[in-house]
Amino acid sequence: MADDRPYSSIVVDGVEQAPSRAMLYPVGFTEEDFKKPQIGIASTWSMVTPCNMHINELAREAARGADAAGGKAVEFNTITVSDGISMGTPGMRYSLVSREVIADSIETVVGAQGFDGFVAIGGCDKNMPACGMAIARLNRPAVFVYGGTILPGAERRDIVSVFEAVGGHAAGTVSDIELKEVESTAIPGPGSCGGMYTANTMASALEALGLSLPNSSAQNAVSDAKKEDSYRAGAAVQNLIKRGMKPSDMLSLEAFENAISVVIALEGSTNAVLHLLAIAHAAGIKLELDDFNRVGARVPVLADMRPAGQYAMSELIEIGGIQPLMKTLLQEGLLHGDCLTVTGSTLAENLADVPDYPAEQKIIRPLQNPIKPDSHLVVLRGNLAAQGAVAKITGHEGLQFTGTARCFHGEEQGMAATMDGTVQKGDVVIIRYEGPKGGPGMREMLSPTSAINGRGLSEHVALITDGRFSGGSHGFVIGHVTPEAFEGGTIALVEDGDSITVDAQTRELTLHVDDEELAARRANWQRPAPYATRGTLAKYARLVATASEGAVTDKYLD
Question: 136, 233, 270, 374: least buried by Cβ within 10 Å?
Answer without folding.
Answer: 374
